[in-house]
Amino acid sequence: MSAEKNFPMNLRDTKETLLVTNADLSGSRFTDVSLHAAQFADVNLAQTEFTDINLSDANLSNVEIEDCDISGMKIHGVLVSELLRVYERKA
Question: What's the whole-model pTM score?
C-alpha cells in the first residue's frame, strides 16, 4: 500500500462557487479572495488567523469567541480590549 500524498488544490484567477461538506481543509490559505455572501455552518476555526479582513454587513449573531488574541481588534473603531476592560470593571 503506497502512502497517500495530499497536494494542494490551487485555484487562481477564477470565479467558482464551492459546495464543501464534511471536509478537512486544515492548513488552507486564502489571499486576496472574495467570500462575499459565503455561508459557514458548524465550522471549526480554531487556530485560524485573520488579517486585513472586511466583515462589514456580516451577521455575527450567535458567534462565540474564546481564548483568542484580540490585540488591535476593533468594533466600530473601539478596541475590543478596551470594551472588555470597561465591562469587567463594571461587573
Answer: 0.73
CA-based nearest residue to 43, from 29, 71, 58, 23: 23
CA distance 32 to 41: 22
pLDDT along the chain (91 residues), means of 10: 73 95 95 94 92 90 90 94 95 81
Beta carbons of 37 and 45 less than 8 angstroms apart: no
- 3-state DSSP call for residue 81? helix
Q: What is the DSSP string of 2-61?
A: PPP--PPP---S--------S---TT----S---TT----S---TT----S---TT---T
> Contact at 8 Å (CB) between 72 and 79?
yes
